[in-house]
Amino acid sequence: MLSAIANAWTTPVVDYHALAPEMILAGGIVLLLLLDLFISESKKWILTPVASFTALGAFIPVLTLALSDEGARSMFDGRYMVDDFSLVLKGLFLLAGYVVILLTTDHLREGDYYQGEYWFLLLSSILGMVMMASSRDLVSIFVSLEFLSIPAYMMAAWRKRDSRSNEAGIKYYLLGVFASAIMLYGMSLLYGIANSTLLVDIGKYLGEDVTAIRAVAVLFVVIGFAFKVSAVPFHTWAPDVYQGAPTPVTAFLSVASKAAGFVALVTVVYVGFPGSHEVWQPVFWILSALTMTLGNVMALKQTNIVRMLAYSSVAQGGFILMPLAVAGMDGVANSALRAVVTYLLVYAATNLGVFAVVMVVSRKTQSGEISSFGGLFSYAPGLASLMTIFLASLAGIPPLGGWFGKFAAFQSLVSAGNNWAYVLAVIGGVNSVVAFGYYGNIMREMWMKPVPDGDTAPVKIHSSLGVALGITGLATVVLGVFPGLVIHFGDIAGLAGAFGN
Amino acid sequence: MEVLSDHNWVLTVGTFLPLVGVLIMLFIPKTDEVLSKSVAIATAAATLAVGIFTLIQFNYDHADKMQFAADAEWISVIKSSYLIGIDGISLPLYFLSMVITLLVMIYSWNHVPSPGNAKAFFILMLVLQTGMAGTFIARDLILFFVFFELVLLPMYFMIGVWGGENRQYASLKFFLYTMFGSALMLVAFLALFFKTGAESFSIPYLIENGAGIAKNTQIWIFAGMFVGFAVKVPMFPFHTWLPDAHTQAPTQGSVILAAILLKLGTYGFVRIAIPILPAAAKEWAPWIGLLAVIGIIYGALGCLAQTDMKRLIAFSSVAHMGYVMLGISTLTDFGVNAAMFGMVAHGLITGMLFFIAGSVKERYHTLEIKRLSGMLVQMPKLGWILGFSAMASLGLPGLAGFWGEFPAILSAYQPADGLPVEVFRTYMVIAAIGTVFAAGYLLWLYQRTAFGEPTAEFAAGHGHDEDIHDVNKFEWIAWTPLLIAIVVFGVYPQLMFKVLDPAVGVTLKAFGG
Known about the structure:
- The complex is a heterodimer.
- Chain A is mainly alpha-helical.
- Chain A is built from 21 helices and two strands.
- By secondary structure, chain B is mainly alpha-helical.
C-alpha cells in the first residue's frame, strides 16, 4: 500500500509567482532571526526597517498578482488558491501588519522590549494570515490558524513583568486552544463523513441533506471560529486580553487576527458547507444579533478606553456576521461576501487609526481612562479631529468609511427579502444608533469637557505614529467618499461559485 | 426625464467649494483668528457668487426640468451614481443655504460664542454648507443620504461645544433622534431599491418604477422614510429634540438649523417620498395632515407657555413647519407650492428671529421674557426689527410669512382627489385657529419685551449700559438682506411661485395635479 502511494507521488507544480508573498515573508523572518543573533545591541534598531520592508516587500507580489490577467491560480490539487478574494485579504493583512509595525516602533524602544523576537513573532503571525487567505483545505486552514495564533499568544504576554499582560497571554492561549480543540473535533467528523480534507470535496459530499452528525460537524467548526472572531457568547476572552496586552498588540489582535478568523469562517462556509445553509444561517443570525447587542451594551458601561474598544470590536464583529445570516439564500452569496470583505477593509483602517490615537494620547496622559481624553480638542485639535473621524467611521456616519461597510451589510440583508433578514436589519439599525452612545461619549470628552489635569502641553507625535495616523486617516476618508475603490476588489465570484450563482 | 446639462460644473463647484476653504483653513494657525475668519468668509462669498451665477444661468422657462444636470460614476457596484441637478423646487433652497451661511459668518465676525476657537467654528459652518447644498442637488438616494448625514456631526459639535448650559444633553438628543430616523430611512431606501428590481438608486428611475410596488409594501416603505424625514422637520411627536437643540445652540447654529436643516426633512417629502410612492402618500396624507395640525396647535400652545424667548421661537418653528406639512399633505399643486414658499419664508423669518434672540442675549445676558422690557426705549432699531420679524412670522399680509401660511391653510379646503375632503376641511379650520394663536404669542412676546420701560435691573445706570447698544455694523450687514427679502417676497410672491410652480407640477404628476 505504501509503495503504491509512493509510486503515485509526483512533485506538485509550484507557482513561484503565486507564492512570492509567503516566500518573501519567510525570507524576512529568517533574516530577522539571524540579524538578531549576530548584531550588537546598539545596532538592533536596524531590525525595525527590516521588518517594515519585509511586510511592504511581500505586498509587491500581491499587487503584481492582482494586476496579472491569469485569473485564479490553484496549487496542490486546489488546496491552496490565489484568487481575487485571497489577494484582497493578503493585501489587507500585509498593510495592517505594516501599520502595526509603525505603531510598535516607539513602543518597543521605550519599553525596552525584545525587539528581534517581537518582529519575528509578528511577521510569523502575518505569514499565517497570508496563508489562511489562500487555504482551501481543512489541514492547511488549521495549520495557518495555529501559525497565526501561537505567536499572538506570546505577543499578548509581551510585557512579562506586568501581571495583566501575563493574564492576557494565558487567557488567550487557554481559550484559543479550547476553541481549536472544538474545531478540530468538528473537522475530524467532517473528514470522517466526506473522506477528504479538501473543502470542495466536503462541499460536494455534504450536499443539501442535513443529518444530525453533519449538523454537529458544521456547528463545531463554526463555533471554533466564533471564538476567533470573538462572537458572543464566545467573546469573554477579548476584553481581558485586549486590556492586558500591549496596545499595539491589541490593535493587531482586534484587526488582523479578527479578520483572519472571518476569512477562515467565510472560506469554510462558502466552499465547504454551501449546501448546509439551513444549519449555519440560523447560527449566524443568533450570533450576529447577540454579538452586536451585547457588545454594544457592555461597551456603553466601560470607563477604560481599551476595554471599551474591545467591546466595540466585539460589536463590530456582529455587524460583519450580519450578512452571513442570509448568505445561503438565492442570489445573496455574492453580495454577502462583498459586504464582509468591504467591512473588514474599512474596519481595519479605522480601528488601527483609533488605536494609534489612543497610543498617542495615553503616552501623554499616562492613563487609560476615557476621561483622560477630556479637552483633547482644546490642546490637540488635529488629533481630536482625527479621532472624531475614526469614531464617526466606526459609528457608521457618512461620509466616512464605516458607513459603507454597514450599508453593504444592510444591503445584502435587505436583498434576501425575508422577514428574518428584515428583523436582523432592524436589530442592526437600532444597534448602530446605540453604538453612537459610546463613540459619541469619547467625542464629547474630547470636544466638550475640560482637560482633567489641566495639562495642556502640546502632544508629541512620533514620526512613525504620524505615518500610521496619516495612512489610516486617509484610508478612512477615501474609503467613505469613494467606496467604489474597494468594493471593486470585492467582486469575488470565485468563492461564491459553490452557491451556483 | 428631460434634463438640461449646460454648465453642469456649476453645482459641483457650488457644493464643494466650501471644502476647499476648509482645506486652506487647516493650514492657518489657530491663533490667527482674523485670517481664519477672512478665508472662511471669502470662501462663503465665492460660493455665493457661484450661487448667483447659477441663479442667472438658470433657465426659468424650463423650471420644471432638471438643470445643470450631471451624471458621473460613483459607486457603480451598488448602482449608485453622482447624479445631480436642480429644478424650481431645489433652486430657492439651494440658494438660500448659500445666503444664510454667508450672513451667519458675517454675523460671527465679532460674535464667536464661548469658548472661542473661531477656526474650528468657521470650518464647521463650511462643512455644514457643503452638506446642505449637496442635499438639495442630489438626485440619487445614496448621494442624498450621504449629504443628509454630512450635516449631522458639524451641527452636533456646534451645539455641543459652543452651546448654552445644557448643551451636551441637547446635542446628544439632536444626534440620536436624527440618527435613528436616518437608520430607518436607509432601510426604506434599500427596500425601495430591491422592490424596483435592484436597478438603480436614481430618483428619476425610482419615480418611474416606484408606483409599480404593491400598495401594502409602499405603505411600509413610506413609513420608514416618514420617520426619517419627520424627525428632521420636525413633526409632532418627533419634535422634542428641537426646543432643546434650538435653545442650547449658539445663535449661528439656531439660524442655520431653522433656516436650512429643518427644510431637509420637508424637502425629502416633496422630492423623494411623495413622487416615488404616490399610492402610499395618499394613504398617509390624512395622517400627515393630522400630525401637522396637532403640531400647529401644540406648537402654539407651547409658545404661550414659554418663559424663554429663544425657546418660544423654537416652538413657533414647530407650528410653522406644521403649516408646511399641512400644505404638503394635501398633495395638491396649490398646497405644495405654498409649502415650498413657506419653507423659504420660514427660513428667512425664523432665521431673523434667532439672530435677534442672539443679539438680545448678548446685550442682556438673558432671554427670560419677564426680565426683558422696554427694548424700544433702549434700542429702538433692534426693537423695531423684532416687531417687524414678529409681524412677518405671524403671517401679516405683505410680508413673506403670509404666502407660506395662508395658501397652505386654503389648500386644505380642496385636497387631491381621493383624499377625505371633510377631514381636510376640519384641518383647515384648526389650522386657521392656529394663526390666531400665532398672532397671540408673537404679539404678546413683543409687548412684553419691547413695550414699556426697561426693567429696573437693566435700566440706565445699573451697570449694563456698556452692553446694551443698538444694532451694530455686522448685524446690519447680516440682517439687511433677510429683511429686504422678507418684504420683496411678501409684496411680490410671484417671484418665487413662478419658479416653484412648474417643478411642483412635475412632482405631483401622479396625482393629476
